Amino acid sequence: MKLRFIMPLFLILILSGCMYPDERKAENKIPYEDQLDSVQKVVEQFQDEKDGILPIKTRDQDTPIYIKYPIDFSQIVPNYLSSPPGNSFESGGIFQYVLIDVETDPTVKLVDLRIAEKIREIKIRLQAHKYPPFKEALADNVYSVDFSQLGYKSEPYVESPFSHNNLSFVMDGKGEIYVDYISDLYQVLKDSNESYQNGDNIINILTKDSPFVPAYSLPYTVDENNEPIYMAK
User: Fold this and answer.
1) For the chain, how many structural domains are there in total?
2) Which among 70, 135, 193, 232 is most buried, taking Cβ atoms within 10 Å?
């Protein structure tokens, strides 16, 4: 069972780095719109001048889509940009700059690396367990986690980059850990006039009006009431 956690843990370590400084400047935790805009313009300029090539790091094909295309600032600094944004991981910040929609409309977004840190912490504890500590089935191949078996006195959570509410974690049948964005999706659907069909993967709706991506997410769809449910994998 331990081997199942090695590759996902390795990917998180690559993306987030092993440790952050204990003290971070407050401004390095803010997703400034002007910094996103400047990086977006640079990415577009780079793509135009490099015959469609994007300044991204290479990741395996099976890397989850929202962390699959991290921007490689070494390709654009200093020729296109004087330095990476102050809130980027490369400059000591807490955000990884990534691209989504790379085939159609490459768009700069952010991954909050505090989420990656928390998942890394949970995965380290999971390595000591022969079997995943399932608690109860929430849907087909989706389970809550018995965190008491991992030594937690209370269930861990992360702050949503979308709603700032606390988000819990869920697990699939292979023992992979995911952030549960179902409450964020419920709120977005409630406030939206858009309807979806059962079978549509709706997780991308969180990116439409936000600088962030829902990293480490399961796929979600809707039920007959247009409310979010877990999509069978």
Assistant:
1) 2
2) 70
